[in-house]
């Protein structure tokens, strides 16, 4: 019994330490991503060139969701962890080489087909571009330049899975920052240079995207070499490990289609609302993606190898305890983040976006959308933890079912309420459908794991809610005291927003520490230790 407790505790500490490293890296990447968007806005604004770039990049990026950061990564980590635990080093590295070769050949083939059929694909996605002279041709050109990005990012995902399984998290997580750096530095340099040779500046940004993808892969290779991996070119389509990875990926491919349906539905409904609705929703979702990436994605990446190892060792008790503890960790960060985003939505949006053509009315509408998105933040991040458990258990059908339940619920909710809430209903529906997804997966996992400690989970959530309430009251009071700063110029707004956020975080941390939540102490302790070092 003592041994099991120690095992669960060490798993919690390992996830907290790894998640702290990943969170820092993801934060860097998201900040650089924001800088990248600002560079695009400064150089191209919104219109002809940037429209073409967005559509062109969306084509390989849809496939990237599947091969780069979705099904491939989760399926590979599950099988690779099993091999690493039960089959020895030689078989594990053989599987890695085989998967790398297979993915490289498969995606190179898809890339060549994508480049060849770029024109009809662009016509399918953006038929209205034909109304503007040269816009379709530019989009096709950019698509052909950026399509090989898919190969680089998929191989980077496989390498990331290997490193995560070996306990290396920071370098794989920071690699996406190099993608943004490549896009910013390489793209901007080429955008300034290429017009001298008669080419559009936006073509330089497309080549910069390709440079960024190559950097994202390359920066991880030295760390992979240090783990003992030596690449041996081979292709064995009959390899049971490869077949198992592909089998695990299949349901996720179907699940991804549900996500794309949701994106299409939401865009279609948003375009039917008042002018500006699509933009307000897009700006708000960009803001809510920051805590999702820093908390949900970070803990998902950190927990995946630990959960997979428990499953490979048939340690159901360890899997249950690690899962419950990981959920509490995620809630301890996302619930206060939800309160903060709701109470500070307007000051934050005003500070970041209210410049130039972005008016005070736009700030108000974007803040309303952000508030509605924020309600689902805890569920969105928790689902990021739940899905890897299903992969670890070799049962991926339930996340697919949950995705389609969410699609149906989303359509029904929007249809019934869009006349009442207008564009806000789309953000609110996204939160509600994600909450339904969370409840469905949680119920299924409770049965599949023959129960996990609901009492432990409830006690943890109660402490988090009490601390978040105290923090919320503090934020309301600080907003009144610092109102002159929050309504001033950009330097004053910056000082005011950071003062409120800093004091709120300190108050929340002190209250939660007094309430003795072990998972929060684990997270903050590991992050503090990393900074101290």
Shape: globular
Count of individual helical segments = 21
Helix content: over 70%
* SSE pattern, N- to C-terminal: HHHHHHHHHHHHHHHHHHHHH
Brief descriptors of the model:
533 residues; globular
Q: Describe it for me?
A:
51% of the residues are buried. This protein has 533 residues and is an all-alpha fold. The chain has helices at 2-44, 48-67, 71-86, 88-116, 118-125, 135-146, 149-165, 170-193, 201-218, 221-226, 240-271, 277-312, 316-353, 360-374, 377-392, 397-421, 424-448, 454-481, 483-486, 490-514, 518-532. The longest helix has 43 residues, at 2-44. It is globular. Helices cover 85% and strands 0% of the residues. The protein is built from 21 helices and no strands.
Please sum up the structure shown.
The protein is mainly α and 533 residues long. It is built from 21 helices and no strands. α3 (71-86) runs antiparallel to α11 and α12 (277-312) packs parallel to α14 (360-374).
List the helices and strands and how they pair.
Blueprint lengths: L1 H43 L3 H20 L3 H16 L1 H29 L1 H8 L9 H12 L2 H17 L4 H24 L7 H18 L2 H6 L13 H32 L5 H36 L3 H38 L6 H15 L2 H16 L4 H25 L2 H25 L5 H28 L1 H4 L3 H25 L3 H15 L1
Helix pairs in contact: 1-8, 1-12, 1-13, 1-21, 2-6, 2-7, 3-4, 3-7, 3-11, 3-12, 4-7, 5-6, 6-9, 7-9, 8-9, 11-16, 12-13, 12-14, 12-15, 13-14, 13-15, 13-18, 13-20, 14-17, 15-17, 16-17, 18-20
């Amino acid at each position: 019994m003592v041994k099991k407790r120690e095992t669960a505790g060490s798993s919690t500490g390992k996830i907290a330490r790894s998640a702290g490293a990943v969170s820092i890296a993801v934060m860097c990447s998201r900040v650089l991503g924001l800088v990248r968007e600002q560079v695009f806005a400064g150089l191209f604004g919104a219109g002809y060139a940037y429209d073409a770039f967005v559509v062109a990049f969306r084509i390989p990026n849809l496939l990237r969701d599947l091969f780069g950061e979705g099904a491939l990564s989760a399926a590979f980590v599950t099988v690779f962890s099993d091999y690493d635990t039960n089959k020895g080093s030689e078989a594990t590295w053989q599987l890695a080489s085989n998967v790398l070769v297979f993915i490289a050949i498969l995606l190179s083939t898809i890339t060549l087909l994508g480049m060849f059929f770029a024109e009809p694909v662009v016509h399918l996605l953006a038929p209205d571009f034909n109304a503007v002279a040269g816009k379709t041709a530019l989009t096709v050109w950019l698509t052909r330049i950026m399509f090989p990005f898919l190969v680089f990012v998929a191989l980077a995902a496989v390498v990331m899975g290997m490193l995560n399984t070996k306990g290396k998290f920071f370098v794989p997580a920071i690699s996406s920052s190099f993608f943004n750096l490549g896009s910013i530095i390489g793209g901007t340099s080429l955008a300034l240079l290429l017009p001298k040779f008669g080419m559009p500046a936006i073509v330089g940004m497309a080549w910069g995207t390709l440079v960024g993808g190559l950097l994202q892969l390359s920066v991880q290779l030295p760390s992979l070499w240090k783990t003992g991996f030596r690449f041996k070119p081979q292709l064995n389509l009959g390899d049971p490990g490869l077949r198992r990875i592909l089998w695990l990926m299949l349901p996720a491919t179907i699940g991804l289609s549900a996500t794309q349906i949701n994106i299409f539905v939401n865009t279609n409904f948003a375009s039917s609302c008042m002018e500006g609705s699509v933009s307000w929703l897009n700006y708000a979702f960009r803001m809510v993606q920051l805590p999702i990436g820093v908390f949900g994605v970070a803990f998902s990446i950190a927990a995946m190898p630990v959960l997979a190892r428990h499953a490979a060792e048939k340690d159901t008790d360890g899997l249950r305890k690690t899962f419950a503890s990981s959920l509490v960790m995620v809630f301890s960060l996302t619930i206060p983040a939800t309160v903060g985003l709701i109470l500070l939505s307007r000051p934050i949006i005003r500070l970041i976006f209210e410049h130039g053509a972005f008016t005070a009315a736009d700030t108000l509408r974007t803040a309303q959308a952000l508030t509605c998105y924020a309600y689902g933040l805890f569920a969105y991040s928790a689902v990021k933890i739940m899905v890897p458990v299903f992969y670890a258990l070799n049962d991926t059908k339930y996340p697919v079912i949950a995705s389609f339940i969410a699609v149906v619920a989303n359509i029904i909710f929007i249809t019934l309420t869009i006349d009442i809430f207008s564009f806000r209903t789309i953000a609110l529906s996204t939160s509600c459908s994600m909450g339904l997804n969370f409840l469905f997966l949680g119920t299924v996992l409770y049965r599949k794991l023959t129960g996990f400690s609901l009492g432990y989970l409830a006690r943890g959530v109660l402490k988090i809610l009490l601390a978040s309430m105290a923090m919320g009251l503090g934020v309301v009071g600080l907003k009144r005291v610092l109102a002159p700063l929050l309504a001033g110029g950009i330097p004053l707004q910056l000082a005011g927003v950071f003062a409120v956020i800093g004091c709120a975080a300190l108050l929340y941390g002190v209250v939660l520490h007094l309430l003795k939540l072990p998972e929060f102490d684990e997270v903050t302790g590991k992050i503090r230790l990393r900074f101290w070092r």
